Amino acid sequence: MKRAYTTIIIGAGASGLMLASLLEDKHDTLIIDSNIKIGAKIAISGGGKCNLTNESVEASNYVGEAWFVESVLSRFDQEAVLAWFGQRGVTPQIRKDGQYFCQKSADEVLSVFHRELREVDFAMQTVVGVVKKVDKVFTVETDRGTFLSEQLVVASGGLSFPRIGASGVGHVIAESFGHGMTTTAPALVGFTLQPEQFFFKALSGASLEVRITTEEKSFRGDLLFAHKGISGPAVLNASLYWEKGQIEIDFLPGFDWGLLQGKKQLSTILPLPKKIAKAFLDYLKLSDKAAEKLTDPEKAQLKTLQHYRFAPAGTFGYTKAEVTRGGVKSSEIDPYSMMSLREPNLYFIGEVLDVTGELGGHNFQWAFSSAYCCAEMFNGVLDV
Ligand SMILES: Cc1cc2nc3c(=O)[nH]c(=O)nc-3n(C[C@H](O)[C@H](O)[C@H](O)COP(=O)(O)OP(=O)(O)OC[C@H]3O[C@@H](n4cnc5c(N)ncnc54)[C@H](O)[C@@H]3O)c2cc1C
After folding, report:
1. In sequence order, what are the residues at sequence separation of 6 or more whose Cβ sits closer than 8 angstroms to the Cβ of residue 339?
2. Which residues of the chain register pLDDT less than 70?
3. Cβ of 32 less than 6 Å from ligand 1
4. From CA 337, how far away is CA 126, in angstroms rounded?
5. Which atom of ligand 1 lies closest to the CA of 49?
6. Which domains does the chain have, with CATH numbers?
7. Which atom of ligand 1 approaches the CA of 39 most closely?
8. Which pTM does this prediction carry?
9. Does 14 sit in the ligand 1 pocket, CB within 6 Å?
């Protein structure tokens, strides 16, 4: 392996692999990654089936500067992503809520990248440390020596899932070149509980459909009671918009209160799994009686299940989070080329930036779209 390249890409994840695949001239490109295999996160994504993108991708599905997100997504949108993979024999299918998954497994996506990147050099199991620039040349120091390049792409992701390579090195590199960062936090992750909600723990393993509302956004979907707290798609999405403070859970979304009459018992009428209904009745200190025997104050108490407010203690953290919210400030990045506005020939793509998507394929879409913008620059399509 030679040591001086035109382009070095730090990170063999979704964004780095897509960028290298889109390059018209792949010679003289090196991808460095600390993992043994490329695309480690792709391999485990979407329950092993990789949720590649979504039927509906809008800037409003992301936390980030809307104009910046919109500009990047519009250049290589979900249809373009599907077409690109389709031309390479991968035809993802919608499985639920507009989410496109691989037909059999994430290997379908990884095989495409393996085929596309035969001409690219890889330095796998190589950990990047310090990056400097001397006389217009980037020096990338790793635990396996130093590599040089004329242009450097930081595609090293965020802080989530350290067990498959996440290191935060991209943030450190950005700061060393004078970039600002927005506050980072684990996102698309479960919530831990305060002692008042410890009664949830007895429900571990049970799930139900809820609506969760944060200060910014509301999500309807499944909530899973977990050993450590609450999880499931609605919770994960809510975590993206939660900073601190209260959330509100509607445990009975759309319930018709007119049904609460007659001789049937509450636990039979309430549209909740029996175990959950009983736990909530216990919590409200209501007996599981015939609906017709409910007093008005008791009905009012039951209705609080539609407005259950509490402040999570925190989240399950980066070891469980699917993504990192926040990162390198996009206001210091050119959205057409993804080049740093502070340092010529330094680029940032993917999750390392302060753009984070909701569940459903939005984060891979972001990784691919931002990679595309950068590739257009390298392919000489952009006149910057
Ligand atoms: C369990 C899980 C499931 C997910 N499922 C989905 C899904 O189905 N759909 C979706 O859209 N999103 C999903 N995501 C989110 C998605 O995987 C990421 O947003 C996306 O991979 C980000 O791409 P990236 O290229 O920016 O970073 P990454 O894919 O994280 O790639 C960054 C690479 O940089 C390497 N690296 C980091 N630091 C160093 C260093 N110091 N030296 C060398 N190499 C380094 C890492 O090893 C890694 O391979 C999931 C995430 C997780 C954790």
Report:
1. 333, 345, 346, 347, 374, 377, 384
2. 1-2, 382-384
3. yes
4. 27
5. 8
6. 4-185+324-378 (3.50.50.60), 191-315 (2.40.30.10)
7. 49
8. 0.97
9. yes
